[in-house]
Design goal:
With about 350 residues, the protein is an alpha/beta fold. The protein has a single domain (about 1-335), classed as NAD(P)-binding Rossmann-like Domain (Rossmann fold, 3-Layer(aba) Sandwich), CATH 3.40.50.720. Helix content is about 45%, strand content about 15%. Helix 1 crosses helix 7 (about 220-235), helix 6 runs parallel beside helix 8 and helix 10 packs across helix 11. The longest helix is centred in the first third of the chain and has 20 residues, at about 95-115. The protein binds nicotinamide-adenine-dinucleotide and 2'deoxy-thymidine-5'-diphospho-alpha-D-glucose. 2'deoxy-thymidine-5'-diphospho-alpha-D-glucose binds next to helix 6 and strand 8.
């Protein structure tokens, strides 16, 4: 099979490329990424010389480029991770979220239709369901929960989901959609809560916790997300949505304190700062459909995954220190400068 993975130089896409290239040597994995601020080819170093892997630089919203690529490559499967993914950035600049997350997705859908792609998978998020109240621990997001978004980011992702499902109903495109909770693990860009707090704590810098820090997120190790997507693409029912999550709810302040304890740093580093605008209170996924239909079970709990993840950031300081210093942007020029624009 020839599989197009978009956004494979980002956090989850990068982990997915590692997983697929190693697990399926007979499949051909093409990684298409624009290399925005969030894309980093250093993440792909462990696989860049594998014979079943290739990198292509490009924009999923560039119609001419995408149609040319699909015509040339004749992909069997398209898995779309590429997105603007950071909620805070969507509050300061929503437009690029519409451009990439909505127009980029519809461009990929049109090309998938035009060139007979056999499966289009959309990597979506639990944020499309909005949030749950903090005083109702009995409530969870199911696939039937109405979409009810809070941020420009989640609105762009929900819009993309609706287009994906509409292309199935209207044109019969064979699609699946997965909606996952918050991920953590290796290679996460240090603007997101966990790597940001690890990097700042190691530098003895203040840790900015929004508001009281009582908002709840449902944390899933990125490895378990990758396994779930692979299962859905291979065995999931066309036209269906699958929620992905492992029942690992934590308040933000608990997460930050866990990191400080593991690093032997004092809680006095915590600084409560102004809350995020429209801040979703609680996310919590009910993953029963995925478990019952496809037999998925996460390998990690938060308690087993977080020490391993903190250790990864300690062992791979170069990777995130390059990002913080901006050096990773030079890696592309060094690697591909003469081959690509
Ligand atoms: P990320 O920001 O780390 O990576 C996004 C990647 O997409 C980057 O490599 C970037 O260069 C690339 N990209 C951006 N615009 C592009 C464009 N126009 N064309 C081609 N490539 C482009 O994001 P992530 O955290 O890895 O998230 C990946 C996907 O998973 C996103 O769709 C996100 O909505 C979804 N998701 C993320 C989480 C999470 O906790 N991080 C949870 C659930 C779902
Ligand atoms: O739920 C899935 C979503 O998880 C994905 O769709 C998004 O792409 C991903 O970014 C993530 O969104 P969040 O907004 O939940 O993640 P973030 O790491 O930005 O924040 C996690 C929580 O921590 C949130 O309640 C805000 C809070 N926070 C975040 C930062 C960056 C802080 O308190 N301080 C911070 O500095």
């Amino acid at each position: 099979m020839k599989i197009l993975v978009t956004g494979g130089a980002g956090f989850i896409g990068g982990n997915f490329v590692h997983y697929m290239v190693n697990k399926y040597p007979e499949d051909e994995i093409v990684n298409l990424d624009l290399l925005t601020y969030a894309g980093n080819l250093e993440t792909l170093k462990p696989v860049e010389d594998k014979p079943n892997y290739r990198f292509v630089r490009g924009d999923i919203a560039d119609r001419t480029f995408i149609f040319d690529l699909f015509e040339k490559e004749q992909f069997d499967v398209v898995i779309n991770f590429a997105a603007e993914s950071h909620v805070d950035r969507s509050i300061t600049g929503p437009q690029i979220f519409v451009q990439t997350n909505v127009l980029g997705t519809t461009t990929l859908l049109d090309a998938s239709r035009a060139f007979g792609v056999k499966r289009y998978h959309q990597v979506s998020t639990d944020e499309v369901y909005g949030d749950l109240p903090l005083d109702r621990p009995d409530l969870f997001f199911t696939e039937e929960t109405p979409l009810h978004t809070s941020s420009p980011y989640s609105s762009s992702k929900a819009s993309a989901d609706l287009f994906v499902l509409a292309y199935h109903r209207t044109f019969g495109l064979p699609v699946t959609v997965s909606r996952c909770s918050n991920n953590y693990g290796p290679y996460q860009f240090p603007e997101k809560l966990i790597p940001l707090m690890i990097a700042r704590a190691l530098a003895d810098e203040k840790l900015p916790v929004y508001g009281e820090g009582l908002n709840v997120r449902d944390w899933l190790h990125v490895y378990d997300h990758c396994v779930a997507i692979d299962l859905i693409v291979r065995n999931g029912k066309v036209g269906e949505v699958y929620n992905i999550g492992g029942h690992n709810e934590r308040t933000n302040i608990e997460v930050v304190k866990t990191i400080l304890k593991a690093l032997g740093k004092p809680e006095s580093l915590i600084e409560h700062v102004e809350d995020r605008k429209g801040h979703d209170r609680r996310y919590a996924i009910d993953p029963q459909k995925l478990e019952n239909e496809l037999g998925w079970k996460p390998v990690y709990t938060f308690d087993s995954g977080i020490p391993e993840t903190i250790q990864w950031y300690l062992d791979n300081r170069e990777w995130w220190e390059h990002i913080i210093s901006g050096e990773y942007q030079d890696y592309f020029k060094e690697m591909y400068g003469e081959k690509l624009q």
